[in-house]
Specification:
Blueprint: H1 16-19, E1 39-45, E2 57-64, E3 70-71, E4 75-80, E5 86-91, E6 95-96, E7 101-108, E8 121-122, E9 132-138, E10 141-148, E11 169-172, H2 182-185, E12 186-189, E13 216-217, H3 220-224, E14 236-248, E15 252-256, E16 269-273, E17 284-294, E18 306-318, E19 327-328, E20 347-348, H4 362-367, E21 373-381, E22 391-395, E23 423-426, E24 443-455, E25 458-465, E26 468-470, E27 487-497, H5 503-516, E28 522-528, H6 543-555, E29 562-564, E30 582-587, E31 593-595, E32 609-610, E33 617-618, E34 623-624, E35 639-645, E36 648-656, E37 670-671, H7 678-698, E38 704-709, H8 717-723, E39 731-732, E40 745-747, E41 750-752, E42 755-759, E43 767-771, E44 788-792
Parallel strand pairs: 7-8, 13-14, 16-18, 19-21, 23-25, 27-28, 36-38
Antiparallel strand pairs: 1-2, 1-11, 2-7, 3-6, 4-5, 4-9, 9-10, 11-12, 14-15, 14-17, 15-16, 17-18, 20-37, 21-22, 21-24, 22-23, 24-25, 24-26, 27-44, 28-30, 29-30, 31-35, 32-33, 34-35, 35-36, 38-42, 39-42, 40-41, 43-44
Helix pairs in contact: 5-6, 7-8
Length: 795
């Protein structure tokens, strides 16, 4: 079963509206950042020359957190008493460099104290040490305001900063971040005036803030380039301009150019890693930083990378700007190739020299939009929402060139149909619950918009706006009860069932078994864990697990089942560490089915065929096939049981083959993807087929059912090996269904086959077979697999 790995960089996010922190003066003062918000007041000191003061003069300190020098011509500083009376104005001149301070010396007190460092400007304001306000203006428009003291100031952002004293100044906190709330942005600290000669990029009470921007002037398009990785990786760049389109919690934010180039291969979007607290959606920014490529999961895996700008230097030029129009996926010129991820065999698509071809390759199409605003109208859910992650696979409403399942999924019908137009819709940028969970076949009416990101083998639509959920009407299947003459046999992967699971899981599974499967005579169950579940304590027996399930079935109105299995050697059968998953037979004896108990089968010895003709049998029941074969290393061993249906022998082989872990992802950097895990499954299939051949050699009319989670597709070589050929070929019953109904599992929006049920020639003459869709299409699933059942007459 494929594993979902949680993203490291992505964090749970707040709504864009909650990200904007604002404040206004209690009088009708123009809000901060009306003119230029790169320069802020970084410190105010009004105790100069008073008793005990360390400095003779009052001072006001400015800091330029922007990316370019600021000419202070036309700038002023005005002091106001707490009551709002003006105490005078200082006119500024000169300039302040990026990352630099600017010290303004004001009036002196009568006491003896040290002089200030050489001031960059001089005024004569006599400020109160304890209460007052200072307003910085550019050409009459307020740029920054600081109100301080116990008495609420007439001019203030948010609420007052602490009161100053003769021995304490009001200084900005670490990094000189300006949230427009004086009480949050300032603390009382020892006076430490800094002038233009002070170190660059150092501001606030304890440490570095933005260093002056360095590097090559670039655009977003130049950073993104025309390939999967940036041509500027490892380089410092500056003057990157764009509008903030989404904020990723405290981790970073996306920007997009408002002056795109005319090359369809270059994305106009870019992720900035860091600095999220300095911006909000709609800010026009200029950014500098170091270009890097982020690969989820580490440097050595098969995931693609995302281009990002790290250690950013950020200048907010203006706020409240309109966002660039979102690209409509599915509209003319923006239709992803549905069935071509990457043409040919390029190997590693990140190889230097390979350029994007968005019109031919889906991988290139999505890469050319990395970090940009995109949207889908009336998006269709082609798989259920993974509620733990808030993720739903979607496709545009007008998607073509795919095979639709009856309930609105997209069929993964062979290796040449990867259905590359799928996106994963994520709600991580929205408040929890903003996007209703979906079943396969549901839709989101209207516009679903956000930014395009990549994470662990898939491109994601990180939604900032979601359409209205509409049900597609998908319901759970219910099979018909077998006739008196029909034996019913089913397979069901119950996904790591352990006694510690909530009773509701047992009850719901029991409901599926009794109602949806009509209480089959034999049920092969995969992924039964031991009595202590995933606790790795040496326990291998699973009696408590099966007893709890059997009791739940009985409570749901089902029959009294009995269970048969073989305990594995501790930690040798793969799956969740400590869980010791195994296959188990449940059977009922009230309708003519009997289990033939032949003791002696263990986890390390192998079942063998005995006798010939009508007397063909096996030596152990239950038993394991070729138990010491290395094909079963770190994997479940097939369980064989001999049953009698009204005295007629029936051999059932329950399987759970090795998982697909280690295979290249469909949307990864290695194209075409390699399926390295197949090697082990081919060996396992060969071992199972060998056992089937031995039984059919002993009795060509043997009634054999091979079933379970083969962890491979019905069109795979694994399945073909098990099927065999010629007169002894098994019939894979899922192949007998209409093509668009062949699925029992959904992985990232691809409806596919992992579970199979095959019958020998003697049983293939007359049967009633069904995949009972109870889980794979539903977000409130009890397992990630659908069960299958066959009802047949045994001769």
């Amino acid at each position: 079963m494929p594993q979902r790995i949680t993203r490291v960089r992505l964090v749970t996010l707040l709504a864009a509206s909650a990200l904007a922190v604002g404040g206004s003066a209690s009088l009708a003062v123009t809000p901060a950042h009306a003119a230029s918000n790169s320069v802020v007041i970084s410190a105010v000191y009004g105790g100069g020359g008073n008793s005990g003061a360390p400095y003779k003069n009052d001072y006001i300190e400015l800091y330029n957190g922007g990316l370019s020098a600021i000419d202070l011509s036309g700038w002023t500083l005005t002091y106001y008493s707490a009551a709002g009376s003006s105490g005078g104005t200082t006119t500024l001149s000169g300039s302040v460099a990026p990352g630099a301070h600017f010290l303004v010396q004001e009036g002196a007190g009568a006491g003896a104290a040290d002089p200030l460092p050489a001031p960059d400007a001089t005024g004569s304001l006599n400020m109160s040490a304890s209460n007052g306000s200072v307003v910085l203006r550019q050409n009459g428009a307020a740029v920054d305001t600081v109100g301080y003291g116990a008495v609420t100031s007439s001019y203030v952002e948010g609420s007052n900063a602490p009161a100053g004293t003769n021995k304490a100044a009001d200084s900005r906190t670490k990094g000189c971040v300006d949230t427009d709330d004086n009480s949050k942005d300032f603390v009382s600290a020892d006076p430490a005036p800094l002038n233009s000669a002070a170190p660059l990029g150092v501001c606030g009470t304890d440490g570095n803030t933005q260093p002056p921007p360095t590097g090559t002037s670039s655009t977003i398009e130049q950073v993104q380039g025309t390939s999967f990785q940036s041509p500027l990786v490892g380089q410092q760049v500056k003057d990157i301009k764009g509008v903030v389109t989404a904020v990723n919690g405290s981790a970073g934010f996306w920007i997009q150019s408002t002056t795109p180039d005319d090359d369809p291969r270059t994305s106009e979007g870019l992720y900035v890693f860091g600095g999220a607290g300095m911006v909000k959606v709609g800010d026009d920014v200029t950014v500098a930083g170091k270009v890097s490529e982020y690969r989820p999961g580490g440097v050595n895996n098969g995931n693609l990378t995302t281009t990002e700008l790290g250690s950013p230097n950020i200048q907010v030029n203006s706020s409240g700007n309109a966002l660039p129009a979102a690209v409509e996926i599915g509209s003319e010129g923006h239709v992803p190739p549905a069935q071509v991820i990457e043409q040919g065999n390029p190997g590693n698509v990140e190889t230097v020299g390979l350029t994007l071809d968005p019109t031919t390759n889906a991988l290139d199409f999505w890469e050319s939009l990395e970090g940009m605003r995109i949207q889908e109208t009336d998006a269709k859910a082609v798989g259920p929402t993974a509620t733990s992650y808030g993720e739903t696979p979607i496709v545009p409403a007008n998607t073509e060139d795919v095979t639709w399942t009856p309930n609105g999924g997209v069929l993964y019908r062979d290796y040449d149909t990867p259905n590359a137009m799928r996106l994963i819709l994520s709600d991580a940028l929205l408040p929890k619950g903003s996007i209703a969970p979906a079943n396969t076949g549901d839709s989101y009416a209207g516009v679903t918009a956000g930014v395009l990101d990549y994470n662990f083998g898939n491109y994601y639509l990180m939604a900032t706006q979601a359409g209205q959920h509409q049900s597609g009407g998908t319901t759970r299947d219910v099979t018909t009860a077998p006739t008196k003459q029909q034996a019913s046999v089913a397979t069901f992967n119950v996904e790591n069932l352990a006694p510690s699971d909530p009773q509701t899981k047992f009850d719901r599974l029991a409901g599926q078994i009794t109602t949806n499967l009509a209480s089959p005579d034999v049920l092969a169950i995969e992924e039964i864990q031991d009595n202590t579940g995933a606790t790795d304590d040496g326990t291998v027996d699973s009696t408590q697990t099966t007893d709890k399930l059997i009791a739940a079935i009985k409570a749901a109105g089902g029959p009294s089942y009995k269970a048969e299995w073989i305990n594995p050697v501790n930690d040798q059968d793969g799956g969740q560490p400590g869980g010791n998953i195994r296959s188990v037979f449940l059977y009922r004896s009230d309708r003519g089915m009997t289990f033939v108990d032949k003791p002696g089968g263990t986890s390390t010895n192998s079942v063998a065929v005995t006798g010939t003709g009508p007397w063909a049998s096996i030596n152990y029941s239950p038993g394991r096939i070729d138990a010491t074969n290395t094909a079963w290393d770190d994997s479940r061993k097939p369980l064989v049981g001999e049953f009698l249906w009204w005295g007629k022998p029936l051999f059932v082989v329950a399987n759970h083959f090795a998982s697909k872990g280690g295979d290249d992802g469909l949307m990864g950097r290695y194209q075409q993807p390699e399926r390295s895990s197949e090697v082990q499954r081919h060996a396992q299939a060969t071992a199972v087929r060998s056992f089937v051949d031995q039984l059919l050699t002993a009795n060509k009319q043997a009634n054999i059912i091979v079933l379970g989670d083969l962890n491979d597709f019905n069109f795979s070589e694994t399945a073909n090996i098990v099927k065999g050929s010629g007169k002894t070929a098994l019939t894979d019953l899922i192949d007998t269904l209409p093509a668009n109904e062949r699925y029992s599992y959904d992985y990232q929006g691809n409806s596919q086959v992992l579970d199979q049920l095959l019958v020998s020639p003697a049983l293939a003459k007359k049967y009633d077979y069904q995949v009972v869709h109870t889980n794979s299409q539903f977000y409130d699933q009890d397992s990630d697999h659908d069960p299958q059942i066959v009802k047949l007459q045994i001769h």
